[in-house]
Amino acid sequence: MFFFIELERRRVHIAGITSHPNGAWATEQARNVLATLRREGKQPRILIRDRDVKLTKAFDAILRSEGITVIRTPIAAPQAKAHAERWVGSLRRECLDRILIVSRSHLERVLREYVTHHNTHRPHRALQQQPPIPKPVLVPTPPCDGHVHRRDRLGGLLHEYEIAA
Q: CATH number of the domain at 2-135, please?
């Protein structure tokens, strides 16, 4: 799995999943993510990446051509990419350690569902307990009458709660 994280809002983008990654594949996934961000009106300025051999000079060139500064993390320094390490750990603890993945398409569905949960519902301390993609507030929130709705994701593995309207 190849992913990107927007550090400002902790939003995760799954770039792609393959059992045989290589430099050309990683470069193509970077193009796709940049196109997605462009459609959303976002222009990343910096990419912090590890030293994986699949992230080739062509990968860096694509990013630099978009005006993105590429910073490679030091060797054996997981603290330099702490947000990515933390997200992978959360994905494993909250999801992958609890589900038996039976196929690539199953893995893709599970990852899409977890990323949707992470981006739209899971609270983050650095974001004042808001998710990376906050829900728009259209009207003032009415006082809570004690009713809460629960939504299960991934067959009940993840739960999301909302105050009933």
A: 3.30.420.10
